[in-house]
């Protein structure tokens, strides 16, 4: 019987309504709580002091099942049934608004148990009527010689409705000692902790915490044993990582855990997306109800929180929800109380918040997110990455690539999986680009999904250059952040972005940031990253020794003519003069676009004889003079006796040469800590 | 066969009775001594100190010639209701007496009002429209002849007065207090005693309705913490037969950890220790388990934040002064009235400083451990304050 129950989707929501024998046999967690309560029931039946309990836990944590288990124990255990009557007001509680509603429900149940209860004359005064009802209940119980165990699910809601009438309840509990309440609640409402409330610290609170790894393992193994399902046993024993992932995603909640196990047993799990989709379908009624139970403002907050995925502060949420921070904070507190949101304490006053159940978070993105949010959020990638180990993951990606290549895959599914894989840290950026490009070649992808497809790394790089040109730095940062790869491409682009921002003077720490990112990217062996590292160090005039080493260790001639242009300057700065003239001649012959910048660089580093030599060379000199006449004069002025040369300079280019010389002196001041610019300007001043 | 785990014999929330209650004979003795002197008693203690347990024990173990009954009356909603309850309680308690004269008295009154039934669950009266206040005045003088001294333990009495005032029935509240005061001073009512108790301090409530004289004849009995030896006895009582085992050294450590030895906190700690021991299947308790249990209890009491917010909200102007007192009590274990006064001088509260202390006592923050020495009633609340304000410069 149990097997049937478990296999028919584990009787998802109805556990509390299941057959008594099934409940007893299938009760495998929350054993401590059950043990304490049943032990108390057995040992203290005849005593006047009554321990009341409050079971506190999230939805799906097993509260209703535990209540039902206690009811079954009382009903089936002879010793207990001779001393107690268990009444479980699970469904009826929706009708309870006043104390007399609760008492009338109890009377109905007592009569259902064949316990005669005297009729009560109604009274217009609710208080008098309730007192009369209490009196007949006590009398009926006295006759049976038994105590009533009142199992109240969602007791917080009942107490909220009863308001001041709870005093009457407490009075009766204290005066008669014939009713024991075992309540369950998702939150610790103020009825239970406020000093001025009748039930202040009245209940023994038992928190049904997320199941621990060992408990999850034991639970699944018990299922496997009881049901003789070797597949499940295999899974538990051979895939501890996946098991832990399931536990984390489900926040250790038994109900959500069942969904995973069920699918695990009944479907093959080769295709991660199918697996996730099936899970989502299964949990939808549960999560939809959870969502619907929240007021609109809280719904808005948790949706935005889910789209952010990572823990976020009240300020971040205020920005995305366009609500006031103080309102957000108040709502967040209520959500914490409801167990939907967890607070992550920080060292400052500004704490962070995240959804407690990560799978609920995935579901929200999956079902409630717009294409934009879905595109940004890595829901499927996160699921796949955490659910499969690296080897399995790589195999799945390769298989997907092959399917794309052979066009043997449904277009929409292809797009979704490509998005998921391309947002994973476990693949390289070049492979990511390959996946996206292959997917685009398949026709028939739905428009929304098409929009969800990420940009290729190359497209991102192109957009980045355009944004840098427009000096849209913030947008540029967001753009680079959209890359997830861990192969150094992201850091490379960040290094490039900060280098440009630093050079443009928009970010004082830009060069330092560029260096940091370039180092990370270099460490990850991203092919062209050392170039940016060298460049960022040069621009900061630091670590010449390391640059020297990098230049000599690596083959850097990979960028093509333009990219390598400044290398001779950096080599000179670092003290590496190997084949310097040959390199320069090579660049000159290839008509490198940055020759002017190179010459100025060389002049900064006191290489005017070398530059002059090039200008005087019979081979390339005439061409250079024609193209860079002001540079030639500037070089002459820096090399030879200035007086006769300056007389020869045509007046129309004097100003240009002056600017060139100032740039050189400025450079020297920075690199060699001199005061040449100022001295030069003094020399040029009228009357000097 | 696997040995079954036996949990300790704790009870938190409801009053402890029988095997779960630690009787302190000196409280009972001093109580009966005062009652015999003709005093009406006011039991003074904040919530969770164990007033109800003591009252229930006293009501169940009355000396010969006394008939006691305990009743929580917090559900009472109006003056008439109060008198009806008092009348019923009187009859119920006389009904419990085995004395012949008492039985006869009950017999006369059942006939008079066509009372069909007197039982544990109440009294069934057929007669309509009874003036309960008048009948109480008629019934009590007859106790002398019946040779029975009725003693009624009214739990949450202060709550009723507070509720009447809150609902705009202050005059009814005053009238009840007048009537009770009158009876206390009348010789015809000497065979009748009421013990007043409540979570809300009665003096505080009475001061709110500006009638302090109406209760200044009550004899206060203060309920304090357990002594070290009593705490040890309670630990033994709670763990007797249980799976967890606490050595003498560990008991000392546990008591030190709790410091303010209220039965409630001892029980909370024992439950938390049992939880840890059950999970790890370690029956022999060690210091680490006690430390962890303390942290778990603290963690589970998630609502301490509210205790702080409440002060901020209600005392926005005086919050820093109140908080200074609490921080001192948290860091220095207690605060003396001299220390309070010196802080009050600085804060400009040298006239009304004791009002703040009384409010903190009344609201369950502090307790007076000795004459004019106050400490946190809850070691957990104190710990919360220490966490919230780790640095304190006196």
Provide mean pLDDT of chain A, rounded. 83
Tell me the radius of gyration of chain A.
Answer: 38 Å
CATH topology title of the largest domain in chain B: Rossmann fold
Helix/strand-derived category of chain A reads mainly alpha
- Percent helix among the residues of chain B? 40-55%
Domains of chain B, number: 3
* Low confidence ranges of chain A: 1-7, 9-14, 557-562
Q: If you had to describe this structure to a student in words, what would you say it looks like?
A:
The complex is a heterodimer of chains A (688) and B (394). Chain A has 41 helices and 8 strands. Chain A has 688 residues and is mainly alpha-helical. Chain A folds into 5 domains: 30-207, Rossmann fold (3-Layer(aba) Sandwich); 267-377, Arc Repressor Mutant, subunit A, CATH 1.10.10; 390-452, no CATH class; 455-556; 565-688, no CATH class. Chain A has a 5-stranded parallel β-sheet, with helices on both faces. Chain A has a 3-stranded antiparallel β-sheet with strand order 6-8-7. In chain A, helix 21 crosses helix 23 (411-422), helix 28 (489-503) packs parallel to helix 30 (529-540) and helix 33 packs parallel to helix 35. Chain A is elongated and about 130 Å long. Chain A starts with a helix and ends with a helix. By secondary structure, chain B is of the alpha/beta class. Chain B has 3 domains: 23-222, P-loop containing nucleotide triphosphate hydrolases (Rossmann fold, 3-Layer(aba) Sandwich); 228-300; 304-388, Winged helix-like DNA-binding domain superfamily/Winged helix DNA-binding domain (Arc Repressor Mutant, subunit A). Chain B has a 5-stranded parallel β-sheet, with helices on both faces. In chain B, strands 8-10-9 form a 3-stranded antiparallel β-sheet. In chain B, strands 3-4 form a two-stranded antiparallel sheet. In chain B, strand 3 (115-119) and strand 4 form a beta hairpin. In chain B, helix 3 (79-96) packs parallel to helix 5 (132-139) and helix 11 runs parallel beside helix 13 (287-300). Chain B is globular, with a radius of gyration of 24 Å. The interface between A and B is large, with 45 and 51 residues.
């Amino acid at each position: 019987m149990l097997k049937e129950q478990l296999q028919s989707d584990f009787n998802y929501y109805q556990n509390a309504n299941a057959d008594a024998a099934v409940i007893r046999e299938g009760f495998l967690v929350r054993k401590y709580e059950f043990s304490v309560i049943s032990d108390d029931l057995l040992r203290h039946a005849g005593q006047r002091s009554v321990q009341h309990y409050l079971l506190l836990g999230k939805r799906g944590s097993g509260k209703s099942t535990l209540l039902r288990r206690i009811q079954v124990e009382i009903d089936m255990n002879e010793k207990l049934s001779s001393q107690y009557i268990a009444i479980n007001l699970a469904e009826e509680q929706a009708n309870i608004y006043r104390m007399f509603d609760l008492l009338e429900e109890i009377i109905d149940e007592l009569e259902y148990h064949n316990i005669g209860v005297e009729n009560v004359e109604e009274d217009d005064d609710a208080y008098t009527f309730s007192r009369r009802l209490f009196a007949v209940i006590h009398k009926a119980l006295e006759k049976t010689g038994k105590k009533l165990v009142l199992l109240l699910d969602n007791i917080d809601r009942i107490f909220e409705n009863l308001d001041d009438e709870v005093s009457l309840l407490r009075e009766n509990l204290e005066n008669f000692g014939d009713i024991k309440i075992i309540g369950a609640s998702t939150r610790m409402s103020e009825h239970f902790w406020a000093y001025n409330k009748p039930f202040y610290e009245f209940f023994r609170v038992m928190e049904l915490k997320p199941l621990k790894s060992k408990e999850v393992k034991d639970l699944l193994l018990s299922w496997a044993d009881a049901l003789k399902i070797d597949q499940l046993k295999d899974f538990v024993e051979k895939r501890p990582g996946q098991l832990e992932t399931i536990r984390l995603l489900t926040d250790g909640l038994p109900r959500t855990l069942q969904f995973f196990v069920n699918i695990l047993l009944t479907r093959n799990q080769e295709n991660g997306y199918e697996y996730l989709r099936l899970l989502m379908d299964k949990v939808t009624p549960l999560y939809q109800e959870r969502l619907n139970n929240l007021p609109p403002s809280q719904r808005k907050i948790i949706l935005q929180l889910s789209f952010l995925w990572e823990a976020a502060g009240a300020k971040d949420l205020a920005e995305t929800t366009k609500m006031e921070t103080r309102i957000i904070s108040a709502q967040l507190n209520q959500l914490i109380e409801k167990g939907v949101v967890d607070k992550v304490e920080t060292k400052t006053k500004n704490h962070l918040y995240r959804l407690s159940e990560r799978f609920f978070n995935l579901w929200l993105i999956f079902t409630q997110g717009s294409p934009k949010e879905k595109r940004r959020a890595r829901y499927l990638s996160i699921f796949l990455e955490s659910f499969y180990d690296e080897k399995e993951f790589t195999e799945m990606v390769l298989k997907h690539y092959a399917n794309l290549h052979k066009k043997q895959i449904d277009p929409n599914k292809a797009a979704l999986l490509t998005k998921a894989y391309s947002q994973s840290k476990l693949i390289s950026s070049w492979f990511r680009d390959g996946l996206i490009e292959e997917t685009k070649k398949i026709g028939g992808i739905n428009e929304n999904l098409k929009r969800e497809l990420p940009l290729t790394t190359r497209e991102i790089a192109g957009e980045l250059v355009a944004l840098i040109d427009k000096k849209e730095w913030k947008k540029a940062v967001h753009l680079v952040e959209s890359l997830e790869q861990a192969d150094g491409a992201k850091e490379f682009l960040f290094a490039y972005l900060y280098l440009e921002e630093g050079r443009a003077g928009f970010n004082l720490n830009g060069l330092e940031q560029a260096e940091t990112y370039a180092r990370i990217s270099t460490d990850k062996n991203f092919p062209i990253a050392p170039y940016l590292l060298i460049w960022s160090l040069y621009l900061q005039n630091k670590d010449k020794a390391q640059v020297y080493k990098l230049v000599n260790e690596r083959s850097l001639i990979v960028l093509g003519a333009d990219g390598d242009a400044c290398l001779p300057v950096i080599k000179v700065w670092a003290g590496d003069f190997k084949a310097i003239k040959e390199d320069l001649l090579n660049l000159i012959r290839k008509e490198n676009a940055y020759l002017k910048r190179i010459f100025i660089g060389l002049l900064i580093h006191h290489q005017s004889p070398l530059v002059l030599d090039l200008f005087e060379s019979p081979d390339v000199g005439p061409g250079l003079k024609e193209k860079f006449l002001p540079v030639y004069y500037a070089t002459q002025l820096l090399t030879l006796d200035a007086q006769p040369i300056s007389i020869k300079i045509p007046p129309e280019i004097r100003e240009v040469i002056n600017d060139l010389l100032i740039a050189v002196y400025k450079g020297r001041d920075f690199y060699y800590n001199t005061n040449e610019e100022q001295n030069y300007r003094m020399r040029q001043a009228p009357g000097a | 066969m696997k040995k079954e785990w036996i949990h300790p014999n704790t009870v938190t929330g409801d009053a402890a009775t029988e095997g779960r209650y630690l009787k302190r004979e000196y409280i009972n003795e001093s109580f009966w001594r005062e009652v015999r002197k003709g005093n009406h008693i006011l039991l003074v203690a904040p919530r969770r100190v164990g007033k109800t347990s003591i009252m229930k024990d006293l009501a169940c173990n009355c000396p010969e010639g006394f008939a006691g009954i305990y009743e929580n009356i917090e559900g009472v909603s109006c003056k008439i209701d109060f008198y009806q309850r008092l009348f019923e309680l009187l009859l119920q308690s006389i009904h419990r007496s085995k004395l012949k004269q008492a039985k006869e008295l009950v017999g006369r009154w059942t006939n008079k009002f066509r009372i069909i039934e007197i039982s544990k669950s109440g009294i069934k009266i057929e007669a309509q429209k009874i003036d309960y206040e008048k009948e109480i005045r008629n019934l009590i003088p007859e106790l002398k002849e019946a040779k029975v001294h009725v003693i009624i333990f009214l739990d949450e009495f202060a709550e009723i007065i507070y509720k009447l005032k809150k609902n705009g029935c202050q005059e009814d509240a005053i009238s009840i207090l007048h009537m009770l005061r009158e009876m206390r001073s009348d010789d015809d009512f000497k065979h009748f005693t009421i013990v007043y108790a409540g979570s809300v301090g009665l003096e505080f409530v009475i001061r709110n309705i500006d009638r302090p004289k109406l209760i200044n004849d009550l004899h206060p009995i203060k309920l304090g913490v357990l002594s070290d030896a009593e705490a040890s006895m309670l630990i033994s009582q709670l763990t007797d037969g249980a799976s967890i085992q606490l050595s003498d050294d560990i008991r000392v450590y546990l008591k030190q950890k709790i410091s303010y030895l209220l039965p409630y906190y001892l029980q909370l700690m024992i439950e938390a220790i049992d939880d840890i021991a059950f999970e790890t299947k370690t029956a022999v308790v060690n210091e680490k388990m006690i430390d962890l249990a303390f942290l778990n209890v603290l963690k589970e009491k998630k609502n301490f934040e509210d205790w702080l917010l409440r002060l901020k909200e209600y005392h926005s102007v005086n919050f820093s002064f109140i908080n200074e007192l609490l921080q001192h009590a948290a860091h220095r274990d207690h605060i003396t009235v001299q220390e309070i006064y010196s802080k009050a001088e600085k804060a400009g509260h040298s006239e009304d400083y004791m009002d703040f202390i009384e409010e903190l006592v009344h609201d369950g923050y502090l307790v007076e451990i000795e004459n004019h020495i106050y400490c946190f009633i809850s070691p957990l609340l104190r710990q919360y304050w220490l966490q919230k304000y780790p640095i304190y410069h006196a």
